[in-house]
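forwarding from the other thread:

> can someone predict this with magnesium ion?

sure thing
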Amino acid sequence: MQWETVIGLEIHTQLATRSKIFSAASTAYGAEANTQACAVDLGLPGVLPVLNAEVVTMAIKFGLAIDATVAPLSVFARKNYFYPDLPKGYQISQMELPIVEHGKLEISLEDGTKKVIGVTRAHLEEDAGKSLHEDFQGMTGIDLNRAGTPLLEIVSEPDMRSAKEAVAYMKKMHSLVRYLGISDGNMQEGSFRCDANVSVRPKGQKEFGTRAELKNINSFRFVERAINIEVERQIDILEAGGKVVQETRLYDANKDETRSMRSKEEAMDYRYFPDPDLLPVEITAEQIETVRQTLPELPEAKKTRFISDYQLSEYDADILTNSRELADYFEDVARQSGETKLSANWVIGELSAMLNKEGKDISVSPVSADMLAGMLIRIKDNTISGKIAKEVFEAMWQGEGDADTIIDNKGLRQISDTGAIEKVLDEIIAANPQQFDQLKGGKDKLMGFFVGQVMKAMGGKANPAQVNELMKKKLA
Ligand code: ADP
Ligand code: MG
């Protein structure tokens, strides 16, 4: 039988506010345990939550960016459950009336096709604390620094049909929240993670199959792996005549398997009800318009502009607009050097390769946009060849200074002295009389041989155009 996979994602993204969603405690990452949880985060009696206005602005930004409805009225609700890292005994979230609904996001797949994924809703909520099992033998430590950290939970429609589509969606969403500046998207620090809902059905069947929810996945690679493994597991069960049970499963990256955490029967009844401590959130049309004015250029619009303004291919524009920082870097290099295609090639090629290799972000690139532009100008004015430029780039990366300094220190200036080039050329002709005769006799392929020999003899520093020119004169 042919099976079809159905996936819906719930992404939790941490909003980049300085203080928590309902208190003034700091959200800074990495502080000593329990130094950033105040009376509100701890749920002590006699204190009241106060909504951080910034999270509302951020949610509006997000809603506008995915073409969604921003609710004129949304309501915070208490999600009740007991867990040691939740001192209040409930999490403040939004249930029936979320702040954002009915959005969409277009994804591009590897084969170039595009697909629109529906976003059911996005709601504001607070994060819980963290249980620490490692440093406490036979006991569990609780760190409440995370309690009250603002989250936006983004729930997709079950519109994805493969692990690849789910990854493309997650990446696109990741890029979007960072463009908007509403989240740092740091996946190691847990600022961007997802639950994947996965089911399979016989191809052609209308009804969805029973789903399993894979909890808390914090890398693109793991999402893909976890979904593929889960799909195989479900197909195996169904083909053996069994039934998939609705349950929550955990992906174990070490064992590369998913394990049951709890079934639907064990699922909690959260007894949601509107939080009496918080007023409903009212958003006016003017407020939405004000936020709209602050929206940055979004990835799709930027990509379209790059293609038309800089005559870039769709592929190049796609890579360059992947992150706002990379796009800004490229534009800076292109503007300063006046060479768009060359700038795109270097940013996508050499620069990205080095960043990847060293696991560095563009924001900490040892070669700044100024430096790269400076080097491209030297290629353009024939001070160095493209080949020597690689050597210069490498040296800039190692911190040896800017292009001009390196070219001078290493004596990499291209030789445009006709006399010097001709002298070397004559030597090479004298050493290869047979080849020279063949070339004169019409074996044009040998042109490359002679130019190559001259370049080699001159350490790559001869101006190739000039070498060609001189060679032609010799043949005339
Ligand atoms: P719950 O209330 O249990 O969280 P929701 O209806 O809110 O369930 O759905 C949660 C997520 O699961 C959504 O992203 C949705 O698209 C996805 N989903 C729902 N049904 C299925 C299914 N049969 N297969 C795959 N994903 C599904
Ligand atoms: Mg849900």
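Residues 6-10, 155-158, 197-199, 208, 211 surround adenosine-5'-diphosphate (ligand 1) (CB under 6 Å). thats all i got for now
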